[in-house]
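Researcher: Next entry in the queue.
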Amino acid sequence: MGATVGVLLDLKTYRGIAKGRTGNERIALYNRAGNKCGIKPFYMCLNYVNGKSALGYFYANPKYKLVRKSIPRVTHNRAITLTPYLKKKLNQLSRYSN
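Model: Structure for this entry, 98 residues:
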């Protein structure tokens, strides 16, 4: 598999990945699309971004594996950041992914 693409999720969806309860987010569709395009989605949450790395999930058929990884160069933002803390973290994330 080729490049890694970050998928930034809100905290509730992120925590639901391991339990298979991601609400309205259809995580399996990201996995399927990534497989077709030769990319590997890395699911992360702003609460677990620390410096230039993040704690997140990779799909390893049939489970999700929790790993710490450097911030991918490309991140698809699915998180809504309303608090000043999360806005600051999002700004930091954008600097590290360039």
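Model: The longest helix spans residues 84-96.
Researcher: Noted, moving on.
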